[in-house]
Write a structure and sequence with these properties.
alpha+beta; eight-stranded mixed sheet; 8 strands
Length: about 180
């Protein structure tokens, strides 16, 4: 089976998700505070949902539609979240998405993982554009995107529907030329 290449940072190992990660994904992503901040995470996060999501991720990877990584600590290999790209090959762009389990918030892990995936996007995948959205109630995600060099694009009012409520989304983007000019 084809898997995503591992990406190493100072404190993290980003690697392919495996079915052995399902329990950790369900436990961490199952917290209401996580699901509230991420469009595609359900609540409650029922048994079997993590495995189903991982199979969908593997299928999307085989079709070159997406690439998802488990975010793990290098010290103990514990899964602390996930990060991925939804690829639009014909337009040479991708949407970046991520979440970090609540016990691991405020340690800079999302920024560190996002930097690695942005670099991979431009240097290995040879994409031209990366973009991301976050809900207005999650400004911490916007700070992550700014720290990796992405530019504010604007607010899309009532852009998505989460739990029967329309939500505003804040957009960010980065071009390959912008990435190349980073210090």
């Amino acid at each position: 089976m084809r898997t995503a290449p591992p990406l190493l940072t100072e404190r993290l190992l980003l690697r392919s998700l495996t079915l052995e990660d399902a329990q950790d994904v369900q436990h961490l992503a199952g917290e209401r505070d996580i699901a509230l901040m991420v469009l595609r995470i359900p609540h409650p996060y029922e048994d079997g949902m993590a495995e189903e999501w991982m199979r969908a991720c593997a299928d999307a990877y085989k079709k070159d539609e997406a690439i998802n990584f488990a975010i793990t600590l290098r010290t103990d290999r514990n899964l602390i979240g996930t990060i991925g790209l939804e690829l639009e090959q014909e337009n040479e762009r991708a949407e970046l998405g991520y979440w970090i389990g609540k016990p691991y918030w405020n340690h800079g892990y999302a920024t560190e993982a996002a930097r690695a995936v942005v670099a991979y996007s431009f240097e290995v995948l040879k994409l031209n554009r990366i973009y991301a959205y976050h809900f207005t109630r999650n400004p911490a995600s916007g700070r992550v995107l700014e720290k990796v060099g992405m530019c504010y694009e604007g607010c899309r009012r009532q852009h998505t529907k989460k739990w029967d409520n329309f939500e505003d989304s804040i957009g960010y983007w980065m071009l390959k030329a912008d990435y190349d000019s980073l210090p």
